[in-house]
Amino acid sequence: MNIKEELRKLVTTQTNLRFNDLEINPEKIQAIMINEVVPEDPNQDFYGDDDADYLKTTIPLFQKAGLPISSISDILEMGVYITNAVKSPKYEYTIEKSSIENSLPFLEKEINLFSNVKVILLMGDVAKKSFNMITKKSLKKNIVPSISTYKLRGTEIYYGSIRVMPSYIMTGGNILIEKSKFEMASHDIAAMAVLIK
């Protein structure tokens, strides 16, 4: 299955949306990590160039979690699919609510492509907000409480049988500078790996 082809089946007039152009066996995916937003340059995304900016922080997080990862292929082989909540690049410091809302149908469809998911990691506040907006449609409430991520750490949150783990944004140079967030995000990745073994 090609992710991009599946998501393009949703009718839209938006032209600036970016989807992962990736052939994948959806049955093998047991965990989804949702990052905040696609980069301006598609080559810098998770499934772009081998030395993409997004991988420069993601791979070290997996390695810090004690996992033998050196590429996005290794991550996929583990049964982990990584995507972005917002499918259009941001051009300001913050992400507008309309950008989140415009991407929701695509993120929801993308999540639903994978029937064997056991864990969803929400990497950052935008991912948390997006997932809450999706789940609120059926549950009529936020699945993830709207409090600081550090206060939620260790809390077991479930969406049906899927474990939902709020964590910290995994892209951008700041994650490598903010050592405590790097440590916590890598710890969350290690916990995810245990759940999907």
Automatic annotation (TrEMBL):
<dbReference type="InterPro" id="IPR005122">
    <property type="entry name" value="Uracil-DNA_glycosylase-like"/>
</dbReference>
<feature type="domain" description="Uracil-DNA glycosylase-like">
    <location>
        <begin position="75"/>
        <end position="147"/>
    </location>
</feature>
<dbReference type="InterPro" id="IPR036895">
    <property type="entry name" value="Uracil-DNA_glycosylase-like_sf"/>
</dbReference>
<dbReference type="Pfam" id="PF03167">
    <property type="entry name" value="UDG"/>
</dbReference>
<protein>
    <submittedName>
        <fullName>Uracil-DNA glycosylase</fullName>
    </submittedName>
</protein>
